[in-house]
């Protein structure tokens, strides 16, 4: 079971997840494993730090002690792990970051979305859609230190904040990235701002909950929703022509498999791009069918 | 050379408990404080011990006015107290309980060998040498725990030693060593303030006696100038004509037959019977296993062998048994619940409880037993005085109309007037055909209130005597194994 | 009558805890109504009615366990498991059946918790801490990804309104009313309260203590199961990750309502008051637009103030 | 002498709790060593040494509070606050000073918790539940975004090794050793234990109960503060969102080590055993490659088994 450079040429890649208990993150983990299987001769050791930064560091040390050939880090809400990156560097192993780009510390390569661009994209869509202007609500995932969410909202604001006739109202409470959180934050928002024309959520899960709250309030005709991620349920809602009108694809499957590919390339000695932004196409009713996979995991 | 209280008053949230107590105790004497349940004895003691502030009044020691702000203050002045309730810390060793906060140290750290040695020495010096100081307190019998409590008060020799009902859980030789100890302390110039309901003991031990009634001193006297009857009359406010009821007629049918009952480590091969209409006393030294036997018969603890015990309390109750346990706080009452809810516990019936009916029923029982104060049904039972709490426990079981009543120390801590009421009640029940087992450590009571006496020692029944044909000496001799 | 604090006693019952809860609730409502235009709008009031449901259901179950002197930390995980189970089963089973199975699963977890506490004498805190972990894991094992029931009828429970009142709020109200009667008027309810006061006394009164303790945890499990199903139906999506730290609000509601964590003291009515206090605080802080982390700072401080007031 | 269970008593002290902890640890180590090639590798052992630090530090502080009969739910939030404070201050202050201030902040929170419990007689569970919320909010108020100290020396504490042993493990070991001596050989330590057994008795012995209860919470705060600083240094970045649910592992470690949540019973040694048990379980489940969610399921079950064994 101990890693690297086995006689038969099998390579071992360690995956360090900061937090698996979210569909996006477990989808990512699965995609990496699936891609490894597809490639063959690659063994994956996956770990979960369950949201504990020290445990992530320990898990990475664990992987290094098992002498893995490369490490993929799915950092989720973790902003960075400089000490762990140092340890990997000292061990002379390559490290590929997926989705989360660490703010500080050295890594070999990063593959992920441009979160700000997704926000901009949603903002542009809404600006075009709300020809008469109006109020746009914003539901953030939180906590306040989550820079992925901050970047998405910042992108949206950079467009809508300067659009004539549009007012932005930010919900004071966080939706915790979950549907139930999105639901109750939306309810509170609606109580104060019954005249909203659109709502932007930092991810699809929250938007799905918000959509319920809007439907319950009988305002499905009045308010449209814009999300981020391309979660299956959201894609379906968009395809079905509901008031869920747009999302920006942030495909865990794609990023995961690209991450694995990237790690393998590096191990084969190829020279690779340092940062790769995975495009996040805008998904609307027109093209949702193209992305919706009823059997997909995310 | 004395301790003097002048006009000491105490009230809890506006309700007066003590109303201007005056008393004087001289160093080198035993001052007994007696009074009915709820008279305010324990409250007075808490004030002397610095555990409760007085609402008004003064305290003088050696002609100097003192104000106690904390028990620590009292300790500094040489006042040590042994409370009515046991206060040892269960998980800690005897040594630690004794020396708490005042350990021998070496380089700043506690020197445990030295501490154990000091504790052993102390226990030895006061005649309690049988206790191993390294044992944890929870593993001692109640009697031993009481002795450790007393030893604790003597770690540094006090000027004033206050004992609140120390004899309630002691008997036989333990009691003798306590009395010897008190006499030695008196000789050494200690003022011993002694609270007890056992008047014979008070008359034997005290130099002066203060009688408290309803928070007031109503008499200060000396043993030579008074008698048990006189003290009872003062405490109760009336003369008690007859303490024990008349003999009852011959008993009826067999109600309980216990045979060869054994519970390993507690009691062995116990056989006895209870018949309708009889009161059977059971005497034994503390630790002889009577409580365990009663609990086992009642199904609270499984038996190892023998017959006659029930499988669970529910089965026993269904068969008409009732058990009034010896420790009402631990197993007789739910202290935080109202008097009414406590009494209702054995008669809860569903699906929905008929509250009106329950109120009537329980109200009737409260009246019948005269549980004080008036209108106490909704009161939290914890706020009743000891004797009234005991009556509440009785009420709970009487409501069930039991056919067999097991009473374990039903008069412990209960004043004389209330005791007499309890004896009357036992008698009335027996005359109604109930079979009563009366477990007691009070020799006079066990003989006076019962028809027959079973004597237990070391977990076995060692004697059975007709009450009218035996004597206190004979029963005691059986219990100590000097007679078989 | 002797009492350390002034108490409100009517017809022999002590209403002090209820009175304090009511006073705090009234105070909050008055403050809210006078300082916020939005507070009294129908939309916001409906909101309040909906938002109290989860905490309310969990708080009642928690109260029953706390009355025995125990605690149930596992409720948040049970919410997640039962919600996702009901959503998952709704694909193959009629929806009422799927939901009932969800609630039954909650009861089953409660029975296990109760048995470990009552039968083996383990500390409730640790037993339910362990089952918090295990049941959360099981929720993910059942489905790592959220489950969206395809049948729109699954949403019915969560979105139905009876006039101005959401159905789920009515359900919660019924739980509290029936629960109140259970605690104050049935032998089982009285026994549960007495057990928290002194289990040995209750045992010697011929009452089966184990059975009642297990019953208490089963009730908490049932409430958590119901909350899980209701939440899934309300959101329309069941996620294995919901419910983290839900137990804390439920416990806080009980304590704000004057329940003693040592057992034997607490009432359904006062606990409902505690739920209202929590929901009102959240609502108010939201209406004032207080930032999320300042909300946390204030929420903690307000809880301290409320229990300080109660202590008087 | 009557005793319900066979006990190990040496020279008057009861070592049963220690013995059971030691037995479980040895059992786990033997199982691990015989079933996994990796377990005994130096790398894995170093790893174990590092992994026990946070839980270990928090568990010792928690033990002291539990001994008084209390509980400290706020430690996870304190970890977050003190970590980000130290990281923030390290920009302007020498690093040792910044870290010391972090620990002092932990002590300050402990003092507040302790004062609310001891001075106002509030239930520890609720006080620290409220401060869990408030302190978490304060961490975000201090900095909404993570702080990365620019000076690489900030990482020194977390990454330094003394031979094969990480410095932070040594620090934790010192805490346990000194803490053990404190609890068993100093009057303050003995008083804290006695308070959990019977606070009234301790008060009557003239010992200042309030002071000692406050001290206990301050110690827990200090340990949490130290853990926060160590964690920030180890990770290299301080985030206001770290430390959620850390209190649960700390409490579990104490209970696995035989501490009674009702107070008065527990030892530093046995608690350290509890920490080892938790860390070994995690490590083993990882070495066996058990999937994350199944790990949670098993972890809960193993905790139940361990406390069932201990009960015997
Ligand atoms: N903390 C308290 N709050 C309210 N009332 C109290 C409190 N403590 C005692 N009392 C009341 O004060 C009165 C005197 O009680 P105290 O314990 O001093 O009686 P006592 O003479 O020691 O009785 P006993 O012989 O039963 O021990 C009783 O009526 C009791 O109910
Ligand atoms: N060393 C001990 N360890 C644990 N429990 C003990 C110990 N000694 C006594 N006990 C228990 O403490 C209780 C009270 O003891 P006590 O001496 O009153 O004995 P008892 O059997 O109740 O005798 P009796 O009622 O005849 O006085 C009993 O339940 C007894 O079993
Ligand atoms: Mg008294
Ligand atoms: Mg006895």
Automatic annotation (TrEMBL), chain B:
SUPFAM superfamilies: P-loop containing nucleoside triphosphate hydrolases (SSF52540). Coiled coil: none annotated. The keyword Repeat applies. Keywords: ATP-binding, Nucleotide-binding, Repeat, Transport. One of its GO terms (molecular function) is ATP hydrolysis activity. This is Ribose transport system ATP-binding protein. Signal peptide: none annotated. InterPro entries: AAA+_ATPase (IPR003593), ABC_carbohydrate_import_ATPase (IPR050107), ABC_transporter-like_ATP-bd (IPR003439), ABC_transporter-like_CS (IPR017871), P-loop_NTPase (IPR027417).
UniProtKB/TrEMBL annotation, chains C, D:
It is a multi-pass membrane protein. The chain crosses the membrane at residues 20-40, 52-71, 77-110, 122-142, 162-183, 213-232, 244-263, 270-287, 293-309. The keyword Transmembrane helix applies. This is Ribose transport system permease protein/putative xylitol transport system permease protein. Pfam families: BPD_transp_2. GO terms for molecular function: transmembrane transporter activity. The keyword Transmembrane helix applies. It is found in: Cell membrane. It comes from the Bacteria. The lineage of its organism: Bacteria, Bacillati, Actinomycetota, Actinomycetes, Streptosporangiales. One of its GO terms (cellular component) is plasma membrane. Keywords: Cell membrane, Membrane, Transmembrane, Transmembrane helix.
């Amino acid at each position: 079971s101990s890693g690297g450079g086995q006689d038969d040429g099998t390579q071992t890649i360690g995956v360090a997840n900061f937090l698996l208990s979210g569909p996006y993150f477990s989808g990512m983990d699965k995609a990496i494993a699936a891609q490894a299987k597809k490639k063959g001769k690659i063994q994956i050791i996956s770990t979960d730090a369950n949201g504990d930064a020290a445990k992530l560091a320990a898990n990475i040390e664990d992987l290094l002690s098992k002498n893995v050939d490369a490490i993929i880090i799915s950092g989720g809400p973790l902003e960075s792990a400089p000490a762990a990156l140092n340890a990997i560097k000292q061990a002379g192993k390559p490290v590929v970051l997926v989705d989360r780009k660490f703010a500080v510390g050295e890594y070999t390569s990063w593959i992920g979305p441009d979160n700000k661009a997704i926000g901009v994209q949603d903002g542009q869509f809404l600006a075009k859609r709300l020809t008469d202007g109006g109020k746009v609500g914003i539901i953030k995932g939180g906590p306040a230190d989550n820079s992925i969410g901050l970047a998405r909202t910042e992108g949206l604001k950079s467009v809508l904040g300067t659009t004539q006739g549009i007012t932005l109202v930010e919900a004071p409470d966080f939706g915790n990235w979950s549907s139930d959180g999105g639901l109750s934050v939306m309810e509170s928002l609606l109580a104060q701002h019954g005249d909203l024309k659109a709502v932007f959520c930092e991810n699809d899960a929250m938007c799905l909950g918000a959509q319920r709250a809007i439907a319950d309030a009988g305002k499905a005709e009045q308010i449209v929703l814009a999300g981020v991620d391309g979660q299956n349920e959201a894609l379906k809602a968009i395809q079905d022509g509901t008031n869920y009108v747009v999302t920006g694809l942030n495909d865990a499957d794609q990023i995961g498999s690209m991450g694995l590919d990237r790690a393998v390339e590096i191990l084969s000695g190829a020279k690779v791009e340092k940062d790769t932004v995975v495009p996040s196409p805008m998904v609307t009713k027109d093209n949702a069918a193209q992305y919706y996979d009823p059997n997909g995991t995310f | 050379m004395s301790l003097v209280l002048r006009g000491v008053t105490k009230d809890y949230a506006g309700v007066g408990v003590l109303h201007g107590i005056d008393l004087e105790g001289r160093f080198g004497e035993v001052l007994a404080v007696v009074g009915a349940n709820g008279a305010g004895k324990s409250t007075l003691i808490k004030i002397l011990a610095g555990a409760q502030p007085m609402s008004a009044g003064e305290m003088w020691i050696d002609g100097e006015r003192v104000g106690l702000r904390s028990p620590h203050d009292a300790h500094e002045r040489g006042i040590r107290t042994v409370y009515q309730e046991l206060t040892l810390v269960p998980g800690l060793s005897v040594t630690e309980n004794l020396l708490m906060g005042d350990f021998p140290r070496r380089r700043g750290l506690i020197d445990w060998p030295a501490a154990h040695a000091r504790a052993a020495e102390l226990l030895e010096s006061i005649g309690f040498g049988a206790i191993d100081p390294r044992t944890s307190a929870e593993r001692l019998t109640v009697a031993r725990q009481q002795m450790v409590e007393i030893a604790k008060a003597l770690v540094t020799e006090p000027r004033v030693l206050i004992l609140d009902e120390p004899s309630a859980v002691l008997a036989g030789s333990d009691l003798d060593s306590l009395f010897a100890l008190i006499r030695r302390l008196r000789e050494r110039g200690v003022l011993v303030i002694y609270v007890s309901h056992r008047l014979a003991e008070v008359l034997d031990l005290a130099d002066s006696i203060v009688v408290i009634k309803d928070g007031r001193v109503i008499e200060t006297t000396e043993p030579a100038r008074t008698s048990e009857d006189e003290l009872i009359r003062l405490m109760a406010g009336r003369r008690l004509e007859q303490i024990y009821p008349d003999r009852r007629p011959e008993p009826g049918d067999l109600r309980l037959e216990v045979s060869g009952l054994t519970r390993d480590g507690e009691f062995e091969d116990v056989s006895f019977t209870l018949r309708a209409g009889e009161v059977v006393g059971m005497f034994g030294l503390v630790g002889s296993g009577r409580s365990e036997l009663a609990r086992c018969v009642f199904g609270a603890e499984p038996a190892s062998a023998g017959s006659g015990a029930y499988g669970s309390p529910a089965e026993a109750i269904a068969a008409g048994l009732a058990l009034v346990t010896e420790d009402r706080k631990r197993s007789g009452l739910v202290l935080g619940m109202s008097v009414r809810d406590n009494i209702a516990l054995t008669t809860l019936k569903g699906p929905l409880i008929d509250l009106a009916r329950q109120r009537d029923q329980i109200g009737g029982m409260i009246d019948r037993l005269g549980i004080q104060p008036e209108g106490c049904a909704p009161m939290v039972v914890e706020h009743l005085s000891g004797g009234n709490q005991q009556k509440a426990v009785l009420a709970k079981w009487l409501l069930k109309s039991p056919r067999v009543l097991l009473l374990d120390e039903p008069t412990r801590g209960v004043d004389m007037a209330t005791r007499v009421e309890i004896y009357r009640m036992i008698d009335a029940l027996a005359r109604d055909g109930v079979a009563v087992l009366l477990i007691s450590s009070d020799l006079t009571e066990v003989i006076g209130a019962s028809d027959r006496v079973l004597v237990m020692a070391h977990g076995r029944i060692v004697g059975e005597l007709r009450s009218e044909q035996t004597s206190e000496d004979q029963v005691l001799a059986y219990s100590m194994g000097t007679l078989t | 009558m002797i009492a350390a604090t002034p108490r409100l006693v009517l017809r022999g019952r002590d209403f002090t805890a209820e009175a304090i809860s009511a006073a705090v609730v009234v105070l909050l409502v008055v403050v809210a109504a006078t300082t916020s235009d939005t507070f009294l709008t129908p939309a916001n009031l409906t909101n309040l009615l909906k938002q109290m449901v989860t905490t309310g259901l969990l708080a009642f179950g928690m109260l029953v366990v706390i009355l025995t002197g125990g605690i149930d930390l596992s409720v948040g995980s049970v919410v997640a498991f039962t919600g996702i189970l009901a959503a998952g089963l709704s694909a193959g089973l009629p929806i009422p059946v799927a939901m009932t199975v969800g609630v039954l699963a909650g009861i089953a977890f409660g029975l296990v918790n109760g048995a470990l506490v009552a039968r083996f004498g383990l500390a409730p805190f640790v037993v339910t801490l362990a089952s918090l972990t295990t049941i959360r894991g099981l929720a993910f094992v059942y489905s790592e990804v959220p489950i969206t029931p395809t049948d729109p009828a699954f949403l019915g429970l969560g979105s139905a309104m009876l006039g101005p009142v959401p159905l789920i709020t009515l359900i919660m109200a019924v739980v509290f009313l029936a629960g109140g009667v259970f605690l104050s008027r049935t032998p089982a309810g009285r026994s549960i309260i007495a057990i928290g006061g002194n289990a040995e006394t209750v045992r010697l009164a011929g009452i089966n203590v184990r059975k009642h303790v297990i019953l208490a945890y089963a009730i908490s499990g049932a409430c958590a199961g119901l909350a899980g199903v209701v939440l899934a139906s309300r959101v329309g999506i069941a996620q294995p990750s919901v419910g983290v730290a839900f137990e804390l609000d439920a416990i806080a509601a009980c304590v704000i309502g004057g329940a003693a964590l040592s057992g034997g003291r607490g009432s359904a009515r006062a606990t409902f008051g505690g739920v209202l206090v929590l929901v009102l605080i959240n609502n108010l802080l939201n209406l004032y637009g207080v930032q999320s982390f300042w909300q946390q700072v204030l929420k903690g401080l307000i809880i301290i103030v409320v229990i300080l007031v109660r202590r008087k």
